[in-house]
Amino acid sequence: MGMEGIGARVARKEDKRFITGGGRYVDDMVVPGMKHAAFVRSPYAHADIKKIDVKKAQGMPGVIGVLTGKELKADGIGNLICGWMIHSKDGSPMKMGAWSPLAVDRVRYVGDAVVIVVADTKGEARDAAEAVEITYKERKAVTDAAEALKSGAPQLHPEAEGNLIFDWEIGDAKATDEAIRQAAHVTRMSIVNNRLVPNAMEPRAALGHYDNGEDHFTCWTTSQNPHVARLVMSAFYNVAPENKLRVIAPDVGGGFGSKIFIYPEEIICLWASKRTGVPVKWVADRTESFLTDAHGRDHHTTVEMAFDKDNRITGFKVDTIANLGAYMSLFSSSVPTYLYATLLSGQYNIPAIHANVRTVYTNTAPVDAYRGAGRPEATYVVERTMETAARELGISPAELRRKNFITQFPHQTPVIMCYDAGDYSASLDAAMKAADYAGFAKRKAAAAKKGLLRGIGMSCYIEACGIAPSAAVGSLGAGVGLWESAEVRVNAVGTIEVLTGSHSHGQGHETTFAQLVSERFGLPIDQISIVHGDTDKVQMGMGTYGSRSGAVGMSAIVKALDKVEAKAKKIAAHLLEADEGDIVIENGALKVAGTDKNVPWFQMALASYTAHNLPGGMEPGLKETAFYDPTNFTFPAGCYICEVEVDPDTGKTQIVQFVAADDFGNIINPMIVEGQVHGGIAQGVGQALLEGAHYDAASGQLLTASFMDYTMPRADDLPSFQVSTSNTPCPGNPLGMKGCGEAGAIGSPPAVINAITDAIGNNKLTMPATPQTVWAAIQAKH
Amino acid sequence: MYSVNYHRASSVADAAKLLKSGDAKLLSGGMTLIPAMKTRLAAPSDLVDISRIAALAGVTVSGKTVTIGAATTHHDVATNAKLAKACPALTHLASHIGDPQVRHKGTIGGSIANNDPAADYPAAMLALDATIITNKRKVQASKFFTGLFETALKDGEIVTGVSFTAPAKAGYAKFPNPASRYAIAGVFAAKGKDGVRVAVTGAGENGVFRSKEMEAALAKKFEAPALDGIKLSASDMMGDLHASPEYRANLVAVMAKRAVAAANG
Question: Which of A25, A117, A168, B204 is the most buried (most CB within 10 A)?
Answer without folding.
Answer: A117
